[in-house]
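so my prof wants the structure for this chain in the tokens format not the other one, which i didnt know existed until like an hour ago. anyway here's the sequence
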Amino acid sequence: MKQTILNLKTIVLLFSSLAIFFSCSDDDTPNIIEEDNENNSRWITIAGALMGTEPGDGNGGTLIYSVTKEDAQDENVQIDPFNNGFVAPSNRTARLQASEDGNTIFNISYAGDTGGVYTKYTVEGGNNFVKTGSEISIEPYVGTAPRWIKLFDGDQTGAAVYVSTEHQVDDNGTTEDVTDDTYLYTNSTIGIVTLDLVNSSIKNFQEHTITLNDEDAAKGYYISRIDMPTLNTAGDKLYIGARISKIDPSTLESDSDYDILGSKTIVLDYPSLLNPTIITSTVGHGNTNGYRSINAFEYNGSVYQANQSDPEGSYILKIDANNEYDNSYDFNLDEALGVTGAYVLAWRPAANGKGVLAYRHDGSQEGISGRGESYFALIDLNAKTATKITDIPYDVDMEMFQYQGYAVDGNDIYLTAASVGKNGNIYVVDTETGTVTKGAELINAEGSHFIGAW
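here's what i got, hopefully its the right format
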């Protein structure tokens, strides 16, 4: 018989300006078995994204639930955050981060009236997340829908970014009537704020206007999105991933048929956030800003970074201690996986340089969410190898486009694998041996999906 840690009850999900009610029992008395942690085990927090209007959109809010790592490894345990979880405040899918030991969850609300509000919670098991410290809003610096990340500096600092763009033309006309205009270039104004996660305060904020080199800028290329700030090993530079877009200089209309430039990263002095420069890879071509999941990690003195939308399939790129791309490091996932059009959705290495990534590729069939079926692979940064994990049952509705996080405990990586609207399981990957263990069952809800473990 399965041990059910979570029992259904009625909960009211409160979002600042959005209330969603779930009535799963007529019993007003909660009946949840408390999660004990007598051995001071690492907590594993599971997050689910509730359907808004369409399956897999994740726009109905985010619910989280924590169990000990022993329960996470036990396939006789059931976890049902959609009926018994704690609501992480956010109008849409919350942007979650966890402390390295799993005992703290950090959240910045995304969009809506509370967008940009930072909160911190102590993990105490089950749906018991205790708010600690003060709330603080970073909305004045980076807006209500910030892209943010926790830097790997001992859980001390978070960093959030934004970008706005403006096309520059000469004085012959206006951007509304481009007949007599001559396009010059596009400026990208970037903002970066660093947040003291311990004391809930703003550490620094800087804004810069940057433009690509004269040749690329004149052709209409510009930085249109930035994300995933990452500290170098020395702690004196901050790398920010970038997406490159292009307009047609003759019309100022968006251009979708163009040569993809070499992958680029913005480099800033840290902690001052001054002196922005742009570095370019000659190995990878495509974007480095990622999406919901951390896209770059420090390992063994260098920073390893995934790219997306590369015509040759995603690469894992390497930035060395000299703060330049190491163009001798060639780790192409098409070649490693034996596919075409590999696209990294979310990845994470353990301390040994071996890790797990979620990906899709050309030929991935679209499921109920309208996005391509996704898969997990075991990767090795040193050997530059990637192998599909075959111990996980896949189907067309398993997609990880919004996947956010993996929980790392030593060489073990915990992941959630479940199709949209269907039950699944936690899986624990021993990155050193490649052994994959099926863990607790994940109970899903209609149109909803799991977005990771922390």
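also thought this was worth mentioning. Confidence is low (pLDDT under 50) at residues 1-34.
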